[in-house]
Specification:
By secondary structure, the chain is mainly α. The protein has helices at residues 2-22, 26-38, 42-66, 72-93, 98-117. The radius of gyration is 15 Å and the shape is globular.
């Protein structure tokens, strides 16, 4: 039990560090960590990632807001879209087979990585 808790804390530290450094992306890190370090299945890892990343994003957001690194005219519409997208995405997770969820996740991660290189 202690070993699993230590692994969970390690997942949290890595996720928080990535999210804090890059202003997001912790969710992309936490899913593979939950799968590989804690043995979560695909859908459980994605669902848990949302719950893990929410407070991480809140902490990062507070830090960025305090530093003046945000635009209210962009944040408000983007937040509305993100909440709606999060709701529909969570509903879709229950409807798609694990292979589809995994394939979409891989494509999104690869596209993000390619975009970072360009």
């Amino acid at each position: 039990m202690v070993k699993k808790n230590l692994k969970a804390v390690l997942c949290g530290l890595l996720t928080g560090a990535v999210n804090g450094l890059f202003g997001g992306g912790g969710g992309m890190v936490v899913v593979p960590l939950l799968k590989n370090l804690l043995g979560f299945d695909e859908k459980r890892a994605h669902a848990t990632a949302i719950l893990v990343i929410a407070p991480v994003c809140a902490a990062s957001a507070i830090t960025y807001i305090a530093g003046g690194y945000f635009s209210p005219e962009v944040v408000i519409p983007a937040a509305i879209g993100s909440v709606a997208g999060g709701f529909f995405g969570a509903m879709a997770l229950n409807k798609f087979p694990v292979a589809v969820v995994n394939a979409v996740f891989i494509v999104v991660m690869a596209a993000a990585g390619i975009r970072m290189l360009i």
